[in-house]
Structure formats: C-alpha cells, structure tokens
Amino acid sequence: MDEIRESLLKTSIATKKERIGKTLSISALLLIAIVVVSIFYFVASKGLATFFVDKINFWDFMTGKTWNPSVNGANGKPETGALPMIVGSFLITVLSAIIATPFAIGTAVFMTEISPKYGAKILQPVTELLVGIPSVVYGFIGLTVVVPFIRNIFGGSGFGILSGTIVLFVMILPTVTSMTVDTLRSVPQYYRESALAIGATRWQAIYKVILRAATPGILTAVVFGMARAFGEALAVQMVVGNAAIMPGNLISPAATLTSVLTMGIGNTVMGSMQNDVLWTLALILLLMSLVFNIIIRLIGKKGELK
C-alpha cells in the first residue's frame, strides 16, 4: 500500500520535463525583458544628461537649426540644434514610404491575385533576395549609380535627401511587399467569391473588396517599412551628404539622426557634452522606434478580421 501511495505522489518524468520547459521559457522571457529595459535605461540616462547635467535647454535642442556642439553660439551656449537631423530623417522616411507603397501594393496584387503561379516562382525569390542584401551594398550602389544620376539630371553634388530617398525606397520595398503579400493572402477566399458572384469584375473585386479588407494590414506594412527607413544608418550616410544644416531642397546635402550618430560617436569622449548630445539623438531614435511599434500594434488590433 505504501509503495502504491509513494508511486502516486512521486513526480513523473513528464512532469519534470514540463517544469524544465516552463523554467527555460520564463528565463528566456525575463532575459529579453531585462535586456530591453536595460537598453532603455542606459540610452535614457545618457541622453537625458544633456538636459540635467550639461544644462542644455530642451526646446533649444529640439528646435535649434545649428549643429556644432564643439562651438559656442552667440548666446554663449553650445550649438546643439537637432532640428536639421530630425527634419532630414522624417523627410527621407516619409518620401521613401510614399514612393514604395504603390509599387509594393501593385507587386503584391500581381503575386496574389493576377498571377500567383509566376509570382511565387519569380517575384517571391527576388523579393526574398532583396531583403537579404546588406545595407552597405545598397549604399555603395547608391553612391555609384544614384548620386551621379541625380548630379547629371538636377546638378549640384548629387548628395542629398533625394538620393537617400531613392536608396531607402529600394531597401524598404521588399519588406513592405512581403508583408502586403501576406496580408492579401489572409483575406478570406469567400470575399473574392462573393464579389464575383454579385457581378463584380476582377478589378472591381480587387480594389473594392480585397484591398479594402486588407487596408489595416497594408498600413501596418507601410509603417513597418517606415520604421526600418527611420533607423537605417549606413546606406543613408553614404548618399545623403552628411551636412547638418536645414535641407533647403531635395538635392542639397543634408543629414539624418543616424548619419550624425555614426559619424560622431567614435570621435567624442564618453561623458563629455559632445558625447551626451549624441546619446540624446539616439534616445530620439529609440523613442521613435517605440512610437512606430505602438502604431503597428494599434493598426493590427483594429484591423483584425472578425
């Protein structure tokens, strides 16, 4: 009797494996959470030092148009206006998304609705290949092809917002296209059949039913592409011109948050004011990434098919 009772109370091997699995899963989750919180804390502590340690005014930093932290301006304070980089980053991000969106939707419609067979055989591998190309290759192609092209057509040096926009358009196009394809494929088949059954043509079914049903997913793809474009550093740095001044037009040299960061972070002393202001730019990038993620989640939650 005691042996039976002991065997019933004894923990089985399956139970032990389940506990080990749960422990490993929770440990991995905690590790990721700790890493994310640590990154936010580290970047925030360094970035906020600009305002609390170096006593630089927040609004002067966000709205100032002159960036030269090593030099004091007419008011006797360092020239730390980040507005040119903020404007440059948003301009390149928005313009590249505006150009990429119609191309991505058209390609996705062809792959899913018009010719799924050739789309899967030809365009799908091409899209996957473009996603895997390193950003430095895109930047080198932009430096070799796009910048001379812009120089010959519009004059000037060829470096600027327009060159950065073209390079980023090519970079985010496969990402937006892949996500749009997945969204269109997730539209229930009976949506198509119902539209055709009531007399709609193929194109009417596509743009009045399928694209409308997939709009939240397409918006999510566009915002995801914008998030990638906003954080891209190397390729943009190679073609944008890296001049931290307010962009007067699309073909004059400009700068983005990432390009100034990559150029300056290795040339400053840790803990100095010149280093702190770069960390503040990094904090702006981190917060913008958070905003993009929140927008993606809100769109995805609102657009769930019921």
From TrEMBL:
Function summary: Part of the binding-protein-dependent transport system for phosphate; probably responsible for the translocation of the substrate across the membrane.
Source species: Periweissella cryptocerci
GO function term, MF aspect, one: phosphate transmembrane transporter activity
Residue ranges of every copy of the ABC transmembrane type-1 domain listed in the record: 86-296
GO cellular component: plasma membrane
Membrane topology category: Multi-pass membrane protein
Family named by the database record: Belongs to the binding-protein-dependent transport system permease family. CysTW subfamily.
A Pfam cross-reference name: BPD_transp_1
UniProt-listed GO biological process terms: phosphate ion transport
NCBIfam families found in the cross-reference section: phosphate_pstC (TIGR02138)
Residues spanning the membrane: 20-44, 85-109, 129-150, 156-176, 209-230, 250-270, 277-300
Name of this chain's protein: Phosphate transport system permease protein
PROSITE patterns to which the protein is assigned, alphabetical: ABC_TM1
Gene name of the encoded protein: pstC
Subcellular location, record wording: Cell membrane
